[in-house]
Design brief:
With about 425 residues, the chain is an alpha/beta fold. It has 14 helices and 12 strands. The structure holds nicotinamide-adenine-dinucleotide. The site of nicotinamide-adenine-dinucleotide has 24 residues, from helix 7 and strand 7.
Length: about 425
Amino acid sequence: MTTEHATTPINPWAVAQQQFDLAAERLGLDDGMRAVLREPRREFTVHFPVHMDDGSVRVFTGYRVQHNLGRGPAKGGIRYHQDVSIDEVKALAMWMTWKCAVVGIPYGGGKGGVIVDPKQLSMRELESLTRRFFTEIEVLVGPEKDIPAPDVNTNSQIMAWMMDTYSMHAGYTVPGVVTGKPISLGGSEGRNEATARCTVYCIVEAARHLGIELPKSRVAVQGFGNAGSIAATLIEDEGATVVAVSDSTGGIANPDGLEISKVIKWKKEHGTVQGFPGATDISNAEVLEVDCDILIPAALENQITERNAGNIKARLIAEAANGPTTPEADRILWKNSKFMIPDILCNAGGVTVSYFEWVQDLNRDHWSEEVVNAKLKEIMTKAFRETLAIARREQCDMRTAAYLLAVRRVADAMAMRGLYP
Ligand code: NAD
């Protein structure tokens, strides 16, 4: 993934390793532990055929990566996107390891992806691709081994097809093999909104810390899918004014505020947020730089780089997306006294409610949305406060603090297990 301004592509895996190196150095991790945690445990590439509607056969490439299994089975979403690469999936898998450790849920990190633009496929082609891809990665996945979930361009319907494929091969229904399923198939209440809800819990905590009054604050959101559009809705519910949003086709702005329910309806009808009545069309790059107090990147990696970090006006940045900020940009934002809620903390609500879903599936149980949201709030508030306490003690930014917390937890677990054989 690249920013619109970038001249050379930024490799997300290089970014993930740099972030890890900074934490490992500060923690004084020994060389052996550093070498183990710096690489994924397993990288799996598959090339698989799909019957297309025109009668042809097309071969697609997909990946499943397990970064670390020290604290439990691998957990992480599956992305369908034309720009998916093995390095992107490796980075996303490593971030999952740290994310699960920050919030203290008993998982390691994994991630998957298929190189495809799903918007170009019919529903039948999408289902065939999903079922065949899942069959190919079945050697790795399972409710005790590796539990996928939705990510960019994948949703509860796709999770249902994955669960059904696995169950057909097992000969019985195995709901715990994926999370983010429809409620009718053992999905959890609150899972769909969990990522955005947790982002907003973190913003509420950060605003309290910074003395920002949410009802007086202006917010910009980049990305208008599951994470972005729901975060925009929930922050509006907190009384904030959303002044700009964008999707892959571009952005819109209105300094007096956008009515988010109407923007969602507009996007459903027109396939884009652009052209929304009363708003000005702006570029994706401009959305990041609009005059606002809170910026929520909720699209893809490498959006805030050394090229545009200095132009960001928001005081608070809440990373609903994974990896939107490069390490160089982090340094500029820190220098400019911006408060960053890093991805591994800010969007951990998705995997946390996925964990709740898995626990419910394994116990054949179903919790109410109130119970799910209360447990999520408790976990996120604790994780936020623990991270903030480290940031204050160490005089560092919140990303460094979250890494110090997470890498220490994973390294401790690995050390206690010892090196096999
Ligand atoms: P999604 O497919 O529902 O939405 C992605 C959105 O980003 C779409 O609106 C798309 O148009 C937009 N987009 C794509 N490229 C863009 C660009 N260059 N500029 C602006 N917008 C662009 O995906 P999602 O699940 O909302 O995921 C978004 C981010 O949140 C990803 O980084 C993902 O890894 C992260 N995330 C998602 C979850 C989850 O539970 N869904 C959990 C944790 C993190």
